[in-house]
């Protein structure tokens, strides 16, 4: 088989720098809490181990509640491990408001010691969440209150926070500030890879040549991570000719060899544009270069075939994966479920959803979105409440895209009352509605002659937009 895909768009290569160690690691102090070897007579019994795990989980879950309490009710003697695990969990899941509350609580603890590494990780999270105002405030706290000297990773995280929010002028200003800073704060390859990725996300490809020239002036080479970032950026923007030119530049340089991230970026770009023939051609080209596919590669190809209404080819990739001992991931099943749902084949959609759970794959919000879309397209709205109830019985955190699907399904069917109930349910889940939901509901109200309700929702949307603008203006 010449062609066979993880799901949705691939990202550029992983960061050059190793992933920051979890914040939990900072809690290790001396020999406290050291466990005995399991072979020792005093080894923990299963019942004792379970009780200890439950106590730890209860302590961790309680930290968020304490962080949200008023300052007068907050303790200064909390268990370090519980606080650090709660902060680590909030950062990993990008719950930025909760993470900042927990961090503020942590700063009040007697055992707290300020670390630049903690600030760098929080700033990176705020960048992913597009919260430049909060990132600026946190950076200022580090400088003015903690008296910590910024390091290259802190500055790079701040570049990410501004760049990912589309504030490239501010991101470039931070890089200029780094160039005039102490030796330990000079921008490195990782800083420039973050900056170039931000330029690509903002479709500011015109800035990339100047950034590369700046790197050359500082004696920094264009490594495989940066090449992959540029290739991936052009691919996501649909600029396929420039993408191929960037690949040619990478090959002509001779210092960098295409890897699996290069391959996945190019296959995704052609597959996303429906050019499956080119996708298959490049799959073969990369195999000739010695680049072997991974599960993400097969998922990309399966999704492309599904979108092109080629279910036979999609299933042949799944068969090929099993023959080569590649284990399907949750993303693999999401792609299959979505494909059959869009095709109106509810029987197969439900079959693969059951198979996903049988094989131990945990459904996620994307899975449930695909099910809702499938039932909506088939006119089976009575199945959607069951999907919502299923999520209530799991630890899946429902996100805005899921509620977009549910509210859109009821809006299209003219079920205005249920649509309103779902909006309230969304708010009860502390999930903030976005522009898509407001637009969908306003259009539904207008279609049913409910002009007054539409105006009220427009006012609510305007307040939401103004709040976002205030956050950006605070930075500027």
Q: Which secondary structure elements does this structure contain, and how are they paired or packed?
A:
Elements: H1 46-68, H2 80-92, H3 96-107, H4 116-128, H5 132-144, H6 152-164, H7 168-179, H8 189-201, H9 208-217, H10 224-236, H11 240-253, H12 260-272, H13 276-288, H14 295-307, H15 311-323, H16 330-342, H17 346-358, H18 365-377, H19 384-392, H20 400-412, H21 416-428, H22 435-447, H23 451-475
Helix pairs in contact: 1-2, 1-3, 2-3, 4-5, 4-6, 5-6, 5-23, 6-7, 6-8, 7-8, 8-9, 8-10, 10-11, 10-12, 11-12, 12-13, 12-14, 14-15, 14-16, 15-16, 16-17, 16-18, 17-18, 18-19, 18-20, 20-21, 20-22, 22-23
What do the pLDDT scores average to? 83
CATH architecture of the domain at 328-469: Alpha Horseshoe
Percent in strands: under 5%
Q: How does the major sheet shape up?
A: none
Number of strands: 0
- Measured distance between first and last alpha carbons: 54 Å
Query: What is the CATH third-level topology name of the domain at 328-469?
Result: Serine Threonine Protein Phosphatase 5, Tetratricopeptide repeat
Query: SSE order, as H and E?
Result: HHHHHHHHHHHHHHHHHHHHHHH
- What is the assigned CATH homologous superfamily of the domain at 328-469? Tetratricopeptide repeat domain
Number of helices: 23
Protein name: Pentatricopeptide repeat-containing protein
InterPro entries: PPR_rpt (IPR002885), TPR-like_helical_dom_sf (IPR011990)
Region (Disordered): 27-47
Organism: Lolium multiflorum (Italian ryegrass)
């Amino acid at each position: 088989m010449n062609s066979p895909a993880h799901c949705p768009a691939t990202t550029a290569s992983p960061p050059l720098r190793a992933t920051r160690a979890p914040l939990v690691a900072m809690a290790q102090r001396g020999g406290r809490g050291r466990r005995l070897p399991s072979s020792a007579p005093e080894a923990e019994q299963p019942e004792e181990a379970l009780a200890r795990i439950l106590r730890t989980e209860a302590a961790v879950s309680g930290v968020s509640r304490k962080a949200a309490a008023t300052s007068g009710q907050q303790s200064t003697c909390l268990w370090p491990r519980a606080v650090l695990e709660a902060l680590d969990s909030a950062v990993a899941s990008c719950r930025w408001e909760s993470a900042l509350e927990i961090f503020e609580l942590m700063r009040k603890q007697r055992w707290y010691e300020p670390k630049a590494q903690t600030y760098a990780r929080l700033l990176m999270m705020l960048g992913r969440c597009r919260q430049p105002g909060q990132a600026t405030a946190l950076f200022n706290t580090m400088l003015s209150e903690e008296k910590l000297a910024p390091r290259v990773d802190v500055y790079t995280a701040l570049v990410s926070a501004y760049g990912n929010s589309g504030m490239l002028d501010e991101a470039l200003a931070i890089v200029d500030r780094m160039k005039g800073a102490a030796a330990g704060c000079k921008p490195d390859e990782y800083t420039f890879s973050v900056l170039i990725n931000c330029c690509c996300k903002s479709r500011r490809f015109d800035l990339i040549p100047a950034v590369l020239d700046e790197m050359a002036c500082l004696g920094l080479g264009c490594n495989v991570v940066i090449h992959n970032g540029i290739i991936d950026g052009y691919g996501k923007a649909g600029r396929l000719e420039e993408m191929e030119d960037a690949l040619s530049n990478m090959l002509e340089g001779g210092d960098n060899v295409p890897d699996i991230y290069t391959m996945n970026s190019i296959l995704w770009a052609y597959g996303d544009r429906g050019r499956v023939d080119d996708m298959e051609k490049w799959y073969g080209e990369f195999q000739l270069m010695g680049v072997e596919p991974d599960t993400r590669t097969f998922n990309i190809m399966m999704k492309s075939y599904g979108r092109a209404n080629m279910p036979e080819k999609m299933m042949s990739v799944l068969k090929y994966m099993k023959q080569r001992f590649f284990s399907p991931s949750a993303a693999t099943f999401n792609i299959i479920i979505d494909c059959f749902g869009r095709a109106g084949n509810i029987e197969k959609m439900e079959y693969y959803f059951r198979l996903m759970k049988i094989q131990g794959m945990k459904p996620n919000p994307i899975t449930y979105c695909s099910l809702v879309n499938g039932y909506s397209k088939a006119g089976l709205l009575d199945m959607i409440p069951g999907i919502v109830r299923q999520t209530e019985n799991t630890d899946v955190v429902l996100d805005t895209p899921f509620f977009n699907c549910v509210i859109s399904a009821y809006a299209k069917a003219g079920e205005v009352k249920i649509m309103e109930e779902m909006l309230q349910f969304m708010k009860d889940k502390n999930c903030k509605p976005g522009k898509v939901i407001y637009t969908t509901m306003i259009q539904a109200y207008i279609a049913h002659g409910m002009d007054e309700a539409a105006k009220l929702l427009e006012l609510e949307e305007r307040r939401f937009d103004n709040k976002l603008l205030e956050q950006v203006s605070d930075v500027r």
